[in-house]
Each structure stands twice: as structure tokens, then as C-alpha cells.
């Protein structure tokens, strides 16, 4: 039995070796979401962290950030803003491009998603290289939002994303980390 809630959530995350390509271990959060207890513990970790902060919105990054972000927004009685992949929003949008390992991508938001000065929590499931999270943060800031923190379930510190986000001046919170080192037994 786990007494540490973060360790309890971490233990429910499935590691899938060699997916989507050889040498990559995919960290799958669906077992956490499928189990009511681990999902509740995960949500509660975020609720307890942010319930005393003065926030206006939660912005969730496409697509798994929508799951946690919308539940968290509901629990904190805040609005939710989706940060989508390019071409998925039907109204007037603004976009921010970012670099991937092989090429570029971009994220978009409706131009009227946030008002200047609103305090926003930015959330996703995982921070790898940090490119998507940093692009989403820049986009929110371009619209006038004050991004309070970047949050995720998982940090992959070997890829340097969380540190890059911190180096940009944005605080980062993650529930757990997975490194390339063997998992403890």
C-alpha cells in the first residue's frame, strides 16, 4: 500500500517499451484514468495545490491535457480553455509554432479565449522536450494572460523540457518523474 499519493499515481502509469518506435518507452496514463481511485488521487493532488491560488482559467494542451484540465477546472470552479493542434478550432484563432525533432508544429487558441490579465494554469499530461508547453505558454501570454505555472502528471527530466520551461521563467509542477534509469522494484 502506498502512503505517498504521487507514488501511488506513478505506480498506476503503464510503461510501454518500444512504442511508438524502438528505444522509446511510452508512459501511458490511461490506467490512471480508468481506475477511479488513482484518478481521484491524481485530481486531488492538483486541486490541493491550486485551490488557494487566485486563478481565472485552466488551459489544457491537446489532447490529454483536456482530460485533466477540464476536470481540474470544474473542481476549482474555473473556466477551461483548450489549446489545440492547428486546424481544429472553428472560430478566429491565433497560433504559435514550435520545433519538433523532425520539423515544426503549431498550437492554436481562439482569439477570444482569454482576457488580458487573467491568471491561467497551463496543464498537460507529460513534459518531454517542453516545446508544446512553451508554445502554449507563449500563445497565452500573447493574448495577455498571466501564466502562473506549467503543470503535468509526468516529467521526463532526461529530455530537459521541464528545465527549459523553468529557464524561460515559468514555474513547473509535475506529480512524478520517469528517467532512463531502471524503475525501482
TrEMBL record:
What processes in GO biological process is this protein linked to? adenine salvage; AMP salvage; purine ribonucleoside salvage
| Domain called Phosphoribosyltransferase: residue spans | 37-157
What InterPro entries does its record include?
Ade_phspho_trans, PRTase-like, PRTase_dom, UPRTase/APRTase
Molecular functions per Gene Ontology: adenine binding; adenine phosphoribosyltransferase activity; AMP binding
Q: In which pathway does it act?
A: Purine metabolism; AMP biosynthesis via salvage pathway; AMP from adenine: step 1/1
Q: Give a GO cellular-component term.
A: cytoplasm
> What does it catalyze?
AMP + diphosphate = 5-phospho-alpha-D-ribose 1-diphosphate + adenine
A Pfam family annotated for this chain is: Pribosyltran
* UniProt entry tagged with the keyword Transferase: yes
Q: Does the keyword Glycosyltransferase apply?
A: yes
Q: Tell me, in one coarse class, where this protein mainly resides.
A: cytoplasm
Q: Keywords in UniProt for this one?
A: Cytoplasm, Glycosyltransferase, Purine salvage, Transferase
Q: Which compartment or compartments is the protein found in?
A: Cytoplasm
E.C. numbers: 2.4.2.7
Protein family: Belongs to the purine/pyrimidine phosphoribosyltransferase family.
Protein function: Catalyzes a salvage reaction resulting in the formation of AMP, that is energically less costly than de novo synthesis.
Subunit notes for this chain? Answer: Homodimer.
Q: Quote the HAMAP family the UniProt record gives.
A: Aden_phosphoribosyltr
What is the protein's name according to its record?
Adenine phosphoribosyltransferase
Amino acid at each position: 500500500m502506498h502512503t505517498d499519493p504521487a507514488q501511488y499515481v506513478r505506480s498506476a502509469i503503464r510503461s510501454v517499451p518500444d512504442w511508438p518506435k524502438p528505444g522509446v518507452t511510452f508512459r501511458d496514463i490511461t490506467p490512471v484514468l480508468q481506475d477511479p481511485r488513482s484518478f481521484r488521487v491524481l485530481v486531488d493532488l492538483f486541486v490541493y495545490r491550486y485551490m488557494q491560488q487566485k486563478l481565472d482559467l485552466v488551459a489544457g494542451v491537446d489532447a490529454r491535457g483536456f482530460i485533466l484540465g477540464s476536470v481540474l477546472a470544474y473542481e476549482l470552479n474555473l473556466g477551461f480553455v483548450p489549446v489545440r493542434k492547428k486546424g481544429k478550432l472553428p472560430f478566429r484563432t491565433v497560433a504559435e509554432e514550435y520545433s519538433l525533432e523532425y520539423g515544426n508544429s503549431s498550437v492554436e487558441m481562439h482569439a477570444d479565449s482569454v482576457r488580458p490579465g487573467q491568471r491561467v494554469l497551463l496543464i498537460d499530461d507529460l513534459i518531454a522536450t517542453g516545446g508544446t508547453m512553451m508554445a502554449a505558454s507563449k500563445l497565452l501570454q500573447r493574448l495577455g494572460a498571466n501564466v502562473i505555472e506549467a503543470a503535468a502528471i509526468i516529467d521526463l527530466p532526461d529530455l530537459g523540457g521541464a528545465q527549459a520551461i523553468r529557464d524561460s521563467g515559468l514555474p513547473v509542477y509535475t506529480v512524478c518523474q520517469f528517467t532512463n534509469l531502471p524503475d525501482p522494484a
